[in-house]
Write a structure and sequence with these properties.
The complex is a heterodimer of chains A (464) and B (301).
Chain A (H helix, E strand, L loop, with lengths): L2 E4 L2 E5 L3 E3 L2 E5 L8 E6 L5 E10 L2 E6 L12 E8 L1 E4 L7 E3 L15 E4 L10 E2 L4 E3 L3 H6 L2 E2 L6 E3 L5 H11 L1 E2 L7 E9 L1 H13 L6 E7 L4 H21 L3 E7 L1 H14 L13 H9 L3 E3 L5 E9 L8 H9 L2 E4 L2 H5 L12 E2 L2 H4 L9 H25 L6 H18 L9 H12 L12 H7 L4
Parallel strand pairs in A: 10-18, 15-21, 15-22, 17-18, 17-19, 19-21
Antiparallel strand pairs in A: 1-2, 2-8, 3-4, 4-7, 5-6, 5-8, 6-7, 9-11, 12-20, 13-14, 13-16, 20-21, 22-23
Helix pairs in contact in A: 2-3, 4-5, 6-7, 10-11, 10-12, 11-12
Chain B lengths: L14 H20 L3 E6 L2 H14 L13 H9 L3 E4 L5 E8 L11 H9 L2 E2 L4 H5 L12 E2 L2 H11 L4 H25 L6 H18 L13 H24 L3 H5 L2 H7 L1 H4 L6 H20 L2
Parallel strand pairs in B: 1-3
Antiparallel strand pairs in B: 2-3, 4-5
Helix pairs in contact in B: 1-2, 3-4, 7-8, 7-9, 8-9, 9-13, 11-13
The chains are: A alpha+beta (464), B mainly alpha (301).
């Protein structure tokens, strides 16, 4: 192998082996892990790749744009001596990029104020600020029961065919902090989604007039799956720049994380690693956390990153490794339920398994309303009793139920029809949400309200 | 916070450090224990730690055992948990370490290796229940799956606090909860109406016990902390309700008469209304309970 130096990188001619998206090179020296490599085929076309593994005199490169057409003797590899970086500036707003951060909207490359490593750096836990600012999404099921706060990472667990895209689009349209005028900037990372889903989001951003504050990263279903592994990282790099350098409040939408994990599994298998659950690599948890943990707020900086990853649960199975591990890292989850969807309830947000772990700190007096926590808790507890009653009614019939249980059945129906259900363009503020909550709570007898204090009952019970 | 030391290895930090962080924590705990302090160490979560172990083991290409975890997983777990205990220090004082380890089994499956091995090395187990958590029953500790092997060791302390009543009260309510578990299976099939009222009073008492005693609101000024003395009095009044109710039912009263009593919602609200230093009020409610039950009794004489 001959070595020739061009600029900062070193170039080698000839590769050892090609297998799937991976290329093996031998006879090289001094290349670093996660370093960027250019793979140049016989015709001189450049494809980007990343070093996955190095050992003495050899390296494995993962090629982002696929390896078809590469020949063993005719391919040249140039090691750039730097990790994958993304050039950022305020001009990235409103632009469309591929997963690697190359513009694909036919515009000129945006100005680069600085280049940032897409792998990011963990935030020192003590430098983080605790998220406690309530984001009003205008959706009762979220605001009332599973409140989102600024800097939180709250995934949507969905299934194929459920309207997760519509819900997330509605959130991006309506999300705001009470008493603040600033709109969220949106970073949208599409991983392995269909073309029409991507265009649905773009159209939606256009309609709501936020397109000028959106950065899109598209890696569609037919794009190379290796590129999918970098897409969320590039997107989060953009988000970090906007939040921590430009002091903006950024909402990051990652869709669909299941596709990302599929790609991870694909690469892991090719690398002959020992698989853990369902063939996913043992480091799936660490890998996901590196993505999810890049959300939050940092002390002394104005901006914030709020993450809403979407993932589809294969076969609606919430214990599948992808939703299961995600649930352990993120601060709660919004679960969509097929049964509600079939009954034409939009948004079909499942009452019981959904959860926001940061809710308790973002609600209450001064933030939403003093009775919010108790109302939510009472609704959860009553709705969970409704589920028991329904299971019972399915066996013995409605007529055999006790009068109290029949009241609960009515409550359940009203809860789903009046509280959970709302229009796609209906924007309810938090007071309205709580009032609807009280209206249906008032259909239960007072003695059943164990979770609400007496003063609150006197103040709100039965008031129209 | 002045008495707390935090070892933070968030999930996006290197896994090798995650494996070490649990040892860093317990070593610091031992340092203070040797100075005669009583130290509590919370390890959250030991599953993440075990996964770090698995990841490193995989990278070292060791032969995997159960679910890809290394074969030495139980040994490592035992080594960690056995570092808890009470010691007499060289200066003649007493120090201790209590370990509270959280385990987060994938998919909530308690049969996976980390949970199973951990249960071999600990004597007290609090099982969090998904159904309770979904109903926002906090703390979601399942009363039937959880256990403590220390009951005998601590019963003396509790007996002193309760005037010798604790063992009896605990046994009484555990017995009712067990019965309820069985009755619920029947109720799920045919509904509560077919049960005789002597059984329905068991269900009612357990519902009351769950709402009034087991479920706590950590944001309520009064309910966030419940002293042992208040717990004993609350438990006592709930068991009184059962016993008096059962007697009345045997005399011919029906369950709805008992359920409708005003005092029932008073008992359910003790946790919010009676503060820890004012627990004599519970005695008043207890008198009220006796009085209302007496009224029913008189109807059947």
């Amino acid at each position: 192998m001959t070595e020739k130096k061009i600029g900062s990188g070193r170039e080698y001619i000839g590769i050892e082996e090609v297998s799937g998206p991976l290329v093996m090179v031998k006879g090289i020296h001094n290349v670093g892990y996660n370093e960027l490599a250019e793979v140049i085929d016989s015709d001189g076309n450049v494809r980007l790749g990343m070093i996955l593994e190095t050992s003495e005199g050899a390296a494995v490169i993962q090629v982002f744009e696929g390896t078809s057409g590469l020949s063993i003797p005719g391919t040249r590899v140039r090691f750039r001596g730097e990790p994958l970086e993304f050039g950022v500036s305020g001009e990235i707003l409103g632009r469309v990029f591929n997963g690697l951060g190359k513009p694909i909207d036919d515009g000129p490359p945006p100005k680069e104020d600085m280049r940032m490593d897409v792998n990011g750096l963990p935030i020192n836990p003590t430098a983080r600020e605790y998220p406690r600012e309530f984001i009003q999404t205008g959706i009762s099921a979220i605001d009332g029961m599973n409140t989102l706060v600024r800097g939180q990472k709250l995934p949507v667990f969905s299934g194929s065919g459920l309207p997760h895209n519509r819900i997330v689009a509605q959130i991006t349209r309506q999300a705001k902090i009470i008493g603040e005028e600033t709109q969220f900037a949106v970073v949208f990372a599409a991983m392995g989604i269909k073309h029409d889903v991507a265009s649905y989001f773009i159209k939606n951003f256009e309609e709501s007039g936020v397109l000028g504050k959106v950065v899109l990263f598209l890696n569609l279903a037919d794009d190379p799956s290796v590129e999918r592994l970098v897409t969320p990282r590039t997107a989060l790099t953009a988000a970090e720049f906007l939040a921590f350098q430009m002091n903006m409040h950024v909402l990051v939408i990652l869709t669909d994380m299941t596709n990302y994990c599929e790609s991870l599994r694909e690469i892991s298998t090719i690398r002959e690693e020992i698989p853990s659950r369902k063939g996913y690599p043992g480091y799936l948890y660490s890998d996901l956390s590196i993505i999810y943990e890049r959300a939050g707020m940092v002390k002394g900086v104005e901006g914030s990153i709020t993450q809403m990853p979407i993932l589809t649960m294969p076969n609606d199975d919430i214990s599948h490794p992808v939703p299961d591990l995600s649930g352990y890292i993120t601060e709660g989850q919004i679960v969509l339920e097929r049964e509600l969807d079939h009954r034409n309830i939009y948004p079909p947000i499942a009452g019981l398994p959904s959860l926001s772990r940061l809710m308790k700190d973002g609600i209450g007096e001064g933030m939403t309303r003093e009775d919010h926590a108790h109302v939510a808790s009472q609704l959860f507890s009553a709705y969970s009793h409704v589920k028991d009653v329904r299971a019972l009614a399915a066996v013995i019939g409605d007529e055999e139920l006790t009068p109290l249980d029949r009241i609960y059945l009515d409550f359940g129906e009203r809860f789903e029809r009046e509280f959970l259900s709302q229009g796609e363009y209906e924007n309810r503020d938090i007071t309205e949400t709580l009032e609807i909550g009280w209206k249906i709570i008032s259909s239960l007898p007072k003695e059943e309200l164990y979770r609400i204090s007496e003063e609150e009952i006197n103040k709100y019970y039965g008031k129209e | 916070m002045e008495r707390t030391i935090l070892i933070a290895n968030t999930s996006n930090m290197p896994v090798a450090a995650r494996e070490a962080s649990i040892y860093t924590g317990i070593t610091i705990a031992e340092y203070y224990r040797d100075q005669g302090y009583h130290v509590a160490i919370m390890a959250d979560s030991t599953s993440r730690w075990a996964e770090a172990l698995r990841e490193l083991s995989g990278r070292m290409e060791e032969m995997p055992a159960d679910e890809g975890y290394p074969a030495y997983l139980p040994t490592r777990l035992a080594e960690f948990y056995e570092r808890a205990g009470v010691v007499s220090t060289y200066s003649g004082t007493e120090g201790s370490i209590s370990i509270v380890g959280s385990v987060s089994p994938p998919g909530g499956d308690f049969s996976e290796p980390v949970t199973q091995h951990t249960k071999r090395f600990v004597r007290c187990f609090w099982a969090l229940d998904r159904q309770l958590a979904n109903a926002r029953h906090y703390p979601a500790i399942s009363w039937l799956d959880s256990y403590s092997e220390y009951v005998d060791e601590i019963s003396g302390w509790w007996q002193d606090k309760s005037g010798g009543r604790w063992i009896e009260l605990r046994r009484g309510i555990m017995d009712l909860l067990q019965q309820e578990g069985k009755l619920q299976q029947v109720v799920k099939l045919v509904g509560p109406d077919v049960l005789p009222d002597t059984k329905r009073i068991v269900l009612e008492t357990c519902v009351m016990f769950r709402n009034a005693f087991l479920q706590q609101n950590s944001f309520d000024k009064i309910d966030m902390y419940c002293t042992p003395e208040k717990q004993i009095k609350m438990l006592q009044i709930i068991l009184d309700f059962y016993e008096l109710g059962l007697e009345n039912i045997k005399r011919g009263a029906n369950i709805h008469q008992i359920k409708k009593l005003k005092v029932v919602s008073m008992i359910n609200r003790i946790k919010f209304t009676v503060s820890n230093d004012d627990i004599d009020k519970i005695d008043e409610i207890r008198d009220e309970l006796a009085r209302s039950m007496k009224e029913i009794e008189e109807m059947f004489e």
